[in-house]
Amino acid sequence: MPLDLDATDAAPHPAWLPDAALAAAGGRRLALDLTSVDAGRHGVLDRAVLGTLATELERAVAAHGGAVVAATDSPDLTLRLTGLAGTTPADATSVRGDSAGEADRAAAGPHDGFTVVRADGRVTVTAATPTSLLHGWFEVVRQGEAAFTGADGVAHRAPAAALRMLDHWDNVDVHPVMGQVERGYAGGSIFYDAGVVRADLSRVTTYARLLAAVGIDRVSINNVNVHAREARLLTDDLPEVARIAAALRPYGVRIHLSVSFAAPMTLGGLATSDPLDEDVRAWWRDAADRVWEAIPDFGGFVVKADSEGQPGPFAYGRDHADGANVLAEAVAPHGGLVHWRAFVYNHTQDWRDRSTDRARAAFDHFAPLDGRFADNVVVQVKHGPLDFQTREAVSPVLAAMPRTRLALELQVTQEYTGQQRHACYLGPWWGELLGFRPWDGAAAEGATTVADVVTGHGPDAAPAVVAAGGGGIAAVSNVGDDRFWTGHPFAQANLYAFGRLTWDPTLDATALLDEWVSLTFPGASPALRDALHGILDGSWRTYERYTAPLGVGFMVRPGHHYGPDVDGYEYTPWGTYHFADRDGIGVDRTRATGTGYTGQYPAPWRDVYESPDTCPDELLLFFHHVPYTHVLHSGVSVVQHVYDTHFAGVEQVEAMVARWEEVAAEVPTDVADRVRERLAEQLRSAVEWRDQVNTYFLRKSGIPDAHGRTIY
Amino acid sequence: MPLDLDATDAAPHPAWLPDAALAAAGGRRLALDLTSVDAGRHGVLDRAVLGTLATELERAVAAHGGAVVAATDSPDLTLRLTGLAGTTPADATSVRGDSAGEADRAAAGPHDGFTVVRADGRVTVTAATPTSLLHGWFEVVRQGEAAFTGADGVAHRAPAAALRMLDHWDNVDVHPVMGQVERGYAGGSIFYDAGVVRADLSRVTTYARLLAAVGIDRVSINNVNVHAREARLLTDDLPEVARIAAALRPYGVRIHLSVSFAAPMTLGGLATSDPLDEDVRAWWRDAADRVWEAIPDFGGFVVKADSEGQPGPFAYGRDHADGANVLAEAVAPHGGLVHWRAFVYNHTQDWRDRSTDRARAAFDHFAPLDGRFADNVVVQVKHGPLDFQTREAVSPVLAAMPRTRLALELQVTQEYTGQQRHACYLGPWWGELLGFRPWDGAAAEGATTVADVVTGHGPDAAPAVVAAGGGGIAAVSNVGDDRFWTGHPFAQANLYAFGRLTWDPTLDATALLDEWVSLTFPGASPALRDALHGILDGSWRTYERYTAPLGVGFMVRPGHHYGPDVDGYEYTPWGTYHFADRDGIGVDRTRATGTGYTGQYPAPWRDVYESPDTCPDELLLFFHHVPYTHVLHSGVSVVQHVYDTHFAGVEQVEAMVARWEEVAAEVPTDVADRVRERLAEQLRSAVEWRDQVNTYFLRKSGIPDAHGRTIY
Q1: Of B33, B387, B452, B544, which one is the catalytic site residue?
Q2: Rounded distance between C-alpha atoms, residue A586 and residue A519, angstroms
Q3: Of B616, B612, B646, whose CA–CA distance to B629 is shortest?
Q4: What's the rounded Cα separation, in Å, for the pair B511 and B533?
């Protein structure tokens, strides 16, 4: 019998906040205690969130029979705002897995986080800001009955990343080829109708609530490729942008805007955008002043400059520090930030030239600039040196700029991971990335991780970087106006896991999926829970199996990036090659004989990656050109690995399909049908990947499958 | 010093009708003699053309100082309309190269053609219809001074093909991906602005004049892929279609419409489009009645059915004869035609299945229907079994349907031949196709040709086919609203040559180019003339050299079809494969071991193509899968041929560029610059083709170039 998910055809799917998820708290006596608050110290954001807190409690008890009572009336749960002077209780037990550096973290974000005290069967959540208290409320919601029935104790929770952000690549206009949301696979934009900001932004507020429940508090609302229409959001359309800000504000979510580096010319009518030009500096200051006047809690600007055709400082012989700092200067008086993307490379490469290596580009451009960026600039670095592939080495930029606030950029939207037609749970991949130890071997315990770097705890981090808590974690959103928000209902789990990992990068992906199942499918049977784990836990590795092998990347159809095309990018200007010939495949990025990219890593990785003997199998073809007969650490040859993984990948998708049929009747029909439809397409596509990739390598290598399976 | 081509920035380029081309006639005394005409017998078309004849003479003498005089006043040139009872003089000398069957041709088109009598230094052109007389006028224009200074004599000229048609793949709307003109490379449509028929159709009349000057008298005005907007041309928009007809009519050009087989449902609201349904038959009759009421000289309908997603009779279990005949029945009372395309194949093939062969499809679908099509149906057959490739075998359908009016369909628009960025003069290719002898070896003299088949003179042609003069010749137009009409100024020569070949398929392509040069560049210096021949005469074979080798076809970027992508279609549903592996390449279409396609040809070709020993080199990979080491008749191996031709092709384009620079100063700057820009792109693209194709085959075969040239 289908569960009631409170979803109707008219309303968007509730995702991980169906009313049933509020049952434990909503059936109890709840209180909001603001007695120690000096309301005069609150800004527009805090005031909005205070109203939301009251509404949340009322909504919960209305649905589940509890009551909102006075704080003095023995409530089961008290949400207490301590005011900005509040401090972390000295006896708090950290609940983060990694307790080292806790003091630093508290220092970096003294107003973030909350404390949960459970004593005598009563729970009190205290926080210094309304938004942190709201996050505490959703922590209680997430725990359900366990929040009230566990042992007494005190726990302090604070987000690992001070900056936790989602980037929307939404356009106001609908592009005839790219659609409205660039690399969007969930319908149109929730912010914009075709050409204008939506009249009804209620869904944006619902979105903010989902984000607050997983701890995200910043959203950039337009595409980093800033087209003419979208550029005007910065100026003419500020009243409309303010409406979007107002729709996000009740849940403590601040907005950022992507801006064009050429704006002083295209919007301001200046003759230049040279960052060292006084008129340009003045234009940016004026622009920033106007933005903050309209939106007092505005977050800042996101910039894609000198990248894939976007304008940037190179046109004036300036570097990216010059470029970023002129914007930083403009937003600094308002406490604003500049997120400056490190995704800078030559997209008009010559495939004949094997010495040019796109993987080198971000490091070559940015590492020399370390220390030159203003304190309110965040350099936002894609997780790998290429472009959100299913498997890539970690970007060496993340280990190269201790005097710069670095943000890790992930991609929740599944551009290269199945485009929300394929079930591909990315939690495990992000866990690997965040846990990667740039200065230590894979097995080192307690070593500094990527997560440490982006939260201000990398080695040799400059004091300003430490003080600011680093650059945080950002990701491209996967949400659109689709009824299920994300096209594939299971893609909701990626958004959920991303948010939770920004609070605690050490969280286990399987445990996060379990949280998501509990909230999204309240009362899920063990069979349903097992099936969802069976389908999703290993789905990223399954996707990897049937697509591009051994870290070589791409092999997708150019343009839309869906489905196989082994040679699709092989002779293009994009710098994404595999160099397969009749003898072997892979990109030689060694110092000894290749592009020298391995030299961008600190030890031990510069050496681990340098030799095929030590390079991990899953990245072998990213670092080395090897014969098809090269034997992997797994014991099979490269070409046999290709065959084996591609057959296995399809078999695993077949198992996913079968698994879903066993439990689909336990969820509402619309969810069951949407998942069924997507799984059917995933199977069709996986078969196509398997057969094209296997055929390509059989034709090229001439080496038959050792097990005699059908290759065409 | 640039010649004066009468072109200004405001006006379209005059193409082959600059005023200077009228100098010889325009400087003389001209008369229009209508004394023997019974005007009462003239329809709307004839009356319009009569007016045009007078205007043409006035225009010529106004520009060049001659005079229009009475026929009794000793004119140098008399254009005499003989009335419909006029007959060919018994002593006329045929000027067609192929005199056999002349009587039949006269019988097939008794009202077409004209007679030129030159006696005592005076010239008289007589014809039975105003349009034929107009064609005679342009014959005189084309000959220039030679028309008046040659020896006395009588010549009768009649078009080989009774039906000579250009198909425009124009959409009323502008498609976000395909643009307005599908496979158009010369800007937007001359007929439509975005969404509507153009208010100013004067350019359409100018176009009709260009067509009349090369003998084309039918134009289909909308894309064979009939989208929703364009479907309405048949009904709601008839007044607008009538405006287009009126704009073409002064030059004797009739219009046809592409219609959707589903129109009875989509436009008529019926529940079916079943061709055997009485309501459907009645709907088509009513639709035709309304069309002819609005446009009395309307030509007929063009239909792409059951092809690449277009609706058709298969949906009702009917065949294509059933489908075509229901439309034929509707248009017959008006003397209308149905052009029914034979381009029917499965575009959702499985590349794994080597037994399915797209090349077989048209024959398999249509040959069994021979004799079933109504007399006013023309089955329009693409020249090859695939899709307008640079090199293909001739379609066996052309030799398989003696009881059907077959039209040859060519593609003037350069979809697969450089998209009007590359100079590629197609006259030689069309000459080969029209002169192909389906029932005889290549060397047979006087044997029946493809041109004979489509003009009603094939072996065993049914009486009705003979009487109608076969199905004629049609082609996809290359014209748009570009200032030069065709993007590349040299692409005008393709349109010119196509028109002239419909009158006489035996004309030599080099001679046709010479005609075009004389008209387009009046007074061209020998150096300019030589350069244009040097650039264009061999340009089709040059294009072939640097693109897909040995008839294998495609290897273009999917979608837009421009530029190389060797594996671009290799694993797609389109049925266009090359099956290259590390050992060899090509498609086995033999009866012995392949798809059996060779069996669709009559002898001797069924046997010539069956064996690699006798198969012509240029089609080897279309018919056979061979090792890279297979030695061609030319004496080199397949892979060495690939290398040699690709290096040679680029060298030839380099020579074209150099050749143009020698003479560019002799033409107007705008022509010189446009050609220069296009040649630069052609060279860039040819280098890309060379390097990608050579690299692909070196990587796959491992066989180095015998001459040690650079392959990447």
Answers
A1: B387
A2: 43
A3: B612
A4: 10
SS (H, E, C) B450-513: HHHHHCCCCCCCCHHHHHHCCCCEEEECCCCCCCCCCCCHHHHHHHHHHHHHHHCCCCCHHHHH
Please give the pLDDT value at position B40: 66
Cβ-based contacts of A566 with chain B (< 8 Å): 567
In the predicted model, residues of chain B with pLDDT beneath 70 are 1-10, 39-41, 83-111
Q: Does A69 touch chain B (CB under 8 A)?
A: no
Q: Which domains does chain A have, with CATH numbers?
A: 19-85+108-157 (3.30.379), 164-520 (3.20.20.80), 522-587+625-711 (3.90.1330.10)
Q: With cut-offs at 50, 70 and 90, classify the pLDDT of residue A40.
A: low
| CA angle centred on A675, ends A673 and A676, rounded to 5° | 60
Determine contact, residues B685/B563, Cβ cutoff 8 Å.
yes
Strands B300-303 and B337-341: parallel
pLDDT score recorded for residue B536: 98
Instruction: Kindly tell me if the per-residue pLDDT of A37 is higher than 90.
Output: no
**Residues of B numbered 692-711 whose beta carbons fall under 8 angstroms of chain A's beta carbons: which are they?**
692, 695-696, 698-702
Question: Is B581 in contact with A702 (Cβ distance < 8 A)?
Answer: yes
- pLDDT reported for residue A547: 98
A445/A306: higher pLDDT: A306
For B176, the closest of A176, A580, A696 (CB atoms) is: A176
Query: Which pairs from A20-23 meet CB under 8 Å and 24+ separation?
Result: A20/A522, A20/A523, A21/A141, A21/A144, A21/A518, A21/A519, A21/A522, A22/A59, A22/A60, A22/A63, A22/A64, A22/A141, A23/A63, A23/A64, A23/A144, A23/A522
- pLDDT tens for B409-465 read 999 999 999 999 999 999 999 999 999 999 998 777 789 999 999 999 999 999 999
> For A697, which residue in chain B has the nearest alpha carbon?
B581
If you compute the radius of gyration of chain A from its CA atoms, what whole number of angstroms results?
25
Closest Cα of chain B to A426: distance in Å?
29
Over the stretch A237-248, which tens digit does the pLDDT of each residue have?
999 999 999 999
CB–CB of A581 and B698 under 8 A?
yes
Exposed (0-12), middle (13-18) or buried (19+): which is B239, by Cβ within 10 Å? exposed
Res A601 pLDDT > 60 = yes
Task: State how far the Cα of A326 lies from the Cα of A301, in Å rounded to an integer.
Answer: 12
User: Any long-range contacts for A67-71 (C-beta under 8 Å, 24+ apart)?
Assistant: A67/A29, A67/A30, A68/A29, A68/A30, A68/A31, A68/A32, A69/A29, A69/A30, A69/A31, A70/A31, A71/A31, A71/A32, A71/A33, A71/A35
CB–CB of B455/B470 below 8 Å?
A: yes
Cα Rg, chain B, nearest whole Å: 25
CA distances from A62 to A24, A56, A209, A567, B64 (A): 13, 10, 18, 59, 95
**Partners of residue A166 on adjacent β-strands:** A219, A475
* Contact predicate A154/A115, CB 8 Å: yes
Instruction: Give chain A positions within 8 Å (CB) of B351.
Output: 712
pLDDT of A24 reads 96
What's the pLDDT score for residue B10? 61
Q: Classify B550 as helix, strand or coil.
A: coil
Cα(first)–Cα(last) distance of chain B, in Å?
Answer: 44
Q: With beta carbons under 8 A apart, name residues in chain B contacting A564.
A: 571
Q: Which value does ipTM take for this structure?
A: 0.87
Give residue-wise pLDDT tens across range A679-712.
Answer: 999 999 999 999 999 999 999 999 999 999 999 9
For residue A86, what pLDDT is reported? Answer: 39
Query: What pTM, to 2 d.p., does this model score?
Result: 0.91
Q: Residue B218 has what pLDDT?
A: 98
The pLDDT assigned to A106 comes to: 35
